[in-house]
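Entry 14. Ran structure prediction on the chain below.
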Amino acid sequence: MADVTIRRALLSVSDKTGLADLAGKLAKAGVELISTGGTAKMLRDAGLDVRDISEITDFPEMMDGRVKTLHPMVHGGLLAVRDDADHAAAMEAHGIGAIDLVVVNLYPFEATVMRGAERDEIIENIDIGGPSMVRSAAKNHRYVTIVTDPADYGALGEELAAHDGATTMDFRKRMAAKAFGATAAYDSMISQWFAFADQGQMFPDMLAINGRAPTELRYGENPHQKAALYTPVGPHAQGIAQAEQVQGKELSYNNLADADAALELCAEFGGGDPAVVIVKHANPCGVAQAPTLLAAWEGALACDSVSAFGGIVAVNRPLDGPTAEAIAKIFTEVVVAPGADDAARAVFAKKKNLRLLITGEMPDPRRGGLAIKPITGGLLVQSRDNGAISESDLKIVTEREPTPQELKDCLFAWTVARHVKSNAIVYAKDGATAGIGAGQMNRRDSSRIAAMKAAEAAEKYEWDQPRTVGSAVASDAFFPFADGLLAAAEAGATAIIQPGGSIRDDEVIAAANEHGLAMVFTGMRHFRH
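Output, structure tokens:
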């Protein structure tokens, strides 16, 4: 297809960034400018000659601007197949002039929703004419150039300069693809607002999913896989996807997945004592809270220093120099923090490959929303696991009641366990994990693996005994048999926290009583697959 010379352009934008400069260049090249309402006024104020859309349609803008471009004189000029004799005859018979370039961006629906506007104002910011023009121009990209993003004005200018005032088919196809993406995202955002915010539907008849501004990643789960990161359009939580990468090599799919897992668990500790989370392959391998960030790091690392090598670290406080120095002593892929002082940044600057991600804030672990997982032929969709329990929700089911310290350790272990892959067993003592068993096919093996990790740590640090002795142990789901609980007792645990609900609860409770254990039920399960 031959290049198309731009002779007539329709400009109608909500975001007027950079438009006056672009329009000035078009006018200087002899392009006739057509515009609407506020855009036309802005261009005239910039000293440019502009024809009002009403002059083209011979019909006034009306109904508060709801009706202005929805007219055959506009859409005929956009949709006509220029080398089709019937189309050309219709254009001549009705005096329809061809429009070669459309520069349109849409009403700020997203911004209106996010600033908490009332429903009527939100409805008024649903653009109708804009998407219609975008789709008409994009459909007819063989003859028409569509630009929807001010970031592309420079590319348009370069294209016109390189091709003597014309655009190539390749450029028009690229812009058309982006235009359809823009209208699809816009419509999906509106659909989501109507379903979730306006009507309170968790699972609407049609689930619209969108994303913008892809960042191509180093690779996917494996080097032969390609991967990209998209951020959602519309209101969303601030998290790993929005973090600022201060330094380090490019992120991979696994880096981001693990960093997200670390941040989500670290967010559970919010504004409490300084907390450190170490994650490996999406599972925590060490978690601790302490009066200082450095002490929390030391407590977390002691749980499983072998797995921590090459891991992801998240903290709930701005990083300081001493903590950064300690973290830098082992190979670490990514560090996630709400902030970092100059001393910490200087330490990490010496580790050129280490990625430092600054989030600025911690996500709300109790926020709502949907979790989406693709499966062959479909999508699994569920509400986020944002359920929580407090000490008052616990049901003591054994003869011995837990001590205040055991209760505190139980709740800490429970917080960690909900972020461990099932079957999950977490031992905790004095605000730190003592052993973590993850992803096993049965709970007994998870108990034993966690105890083994604790024994290895005791040997490495030359402790008198593993930290599982006198610890609390959390199980993400009920013990179907007493064997998992007995494995925890063998490791030295003195208190158990678990959901309860097994048909063998009585058997498990009896085993706990026999071994002098205190056990509490939460009534809430936290499987993580």
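The chain has a mean pLDDT of 92. Will compare against last week's run tomorrow.
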